[in-house]
Amino acid sequence: MELLQTADWKKEKHVPVIEVLKWDNGVVEVKVSVGKEIPHPNTTEHHIAWIELIFHPEGEKFPYVVGRTEFAAHGASVEGPNTSGVYTEPVAHFTFKTEKGGKLIAFSYCNIHGLWMNETELK
Ligand SMILES: [Fe+2]
């Protein structure tokens, strides 16, 4: 059984899409989102709960967790599920410093379909 799942994000709605917005003077800005091509459901019962970004510098043994964004609003209110009309969108922005390139690895977690990953080079 595979713990982590991955696929082409253009065909599979759970895969996190990693976009390096810039790498300027050692400061990296990365956007990670789910559902860029095919929207993922966002309901109390079925939603993306969090996205995490990891950076593995080239030639180093250990990776570093850059950060995690939790998506906390999924329509629930005192009236019940899907009644608040408030839904956090699964989009996360991370900013960090590095002089070295390496691999950016993103995880996304769907509350019912498990852990998904994607990766790209920072170069
Ligand atoms: Fe899902």
Automatic annotation (TrEMBL):
Residues 7-118 form the Desulfoferrodoxin ferrous iron-binding domain. It comes from the Archaea. Belongs to the desulfoferrodoxin family. Its EC number is 1.15.1.2. It is an enzyme of class 1 (oxidoreductase). GO terms for molecular function: iron ion binding; superoxide reductase activity. The keyword Transport applies. Keywords: Electron transport, Iron, Metal-binding, Oxidoreductase, Transport. Gene3D superfamilies: SOR catalytic domain. It comes from Ferroglobus placidus (strain DSM 10642 / AEDII12DO). InterPro entries: Desulfoferrodoxin_Fe-bd_dom, Desulfoferrodoxin_Fe-bd_dom_sf, Desulfoferrodoxin_SOR. This is Superoxide reductase.
